[in-house]
Specification:
The structure is a single chain. The protein contains eleven helices and 17 strands. The chain is of the alpha/beta class and about 350 residues long. The protein folds into two domains: about 210 residues, Medium-chain alcohol dehydrogenases, catalytic domain (Quinone Oxidoreductase, Chain A, domain 1, Alpha-Beta Complex), CATH 3.90.180; about 140 residues, 3-Layer(aba) Sandwich (Rossmann fold), CATH 3.40.50.
Amino acid sequence: MQGVVFLGDRKLEIRDFPDPTPGPREVILEIKASGMCGSDLHRYRETFNPGNSTSGFKMADTPMIAGHEPCGIVAEVGSAVTEAEARIGQRVMDHHYEGCGSCKHCKGGWQQMCLDGTTVFGSSGHGAHAKYMKVPVSTLVPLPDQLSFTTGAAISCGTGTAYGALRRVQLQGGETIAIFGQGPVGLSATQLATAMGARVIALDISEERLEMARKFGAAETINAGSNDPVTAIRDLTHGEGAHKTLEASSAASARQAAVQAVRSWGTACYVGERGNVMIDVSPDMLRRQVTLVGSWTFSTQGQSDCAEFVADNNIDVEALFTDRWTLDQAEEAYRKFDTQTTGKGVIVP
């Protein structure tokens, strides 16, 4: 089979790999949709050498197939996999991490926090930008019949990450939440928060993405490139600030503003990976009793909960996808996604 390999420095190749075969507790997925995530751009852009890592994850010594938003059907099962765990033809998503399976985090469905180290499919293990993918049976998450494979791919990281963050801040109906960054995660948060009954203020520097946010339910939009976000949010909230803020852009200025724009006793949440921020602790946080939390993806149960929420509320996650590509179009796909002006992309092998 063929798979996409990131070479770094905005280069990739489509290489030949053997078709995978399952171990006793593994399954083979036939990939029907493999989402493109903002985290993929880190690997696409950076200069790296196989085997080196500053992330804390286990790294492989050989090139790995990219793609960490897998969705498809079970094509083959290992000898020790029971029918209750997986069956041929079953529609599934995948929780794209593998841990030891025994520590407290793994047992709780948080394999990305494994005390023994984590393999991330699409980075340190083979991912979903290919026809087939081998995964532990413990990482499978059923895909509700009402949802498409592309929707399942989004839930497997970007949309699921947004859902996890909104639950992390305990968003309530009637509250105002300001969402910084309207890329795939931020747009998902806008959709989901609106469905939860919150009033969404969406911020970005791209007018195209702000227009998408309005279509997805944002009550107000702010171009952070031409407005002071903190002042604009306070003007829209009777001078107090938002009840909750969510930062999904990774920009240092947005991270600072997300803390400053939340009201006293409010909660700010960081979702965007990497980067730094400078916060003046006393006026920005301490003297306003502000809570700052980080939210990193979701558990296997959280992924399942997100899928059920999307299905039960008829949320049009499909609308996130502005571009659909075949595997042999991967180079063009990532070149366009790298502009960060579009919605979400998906590769359909």
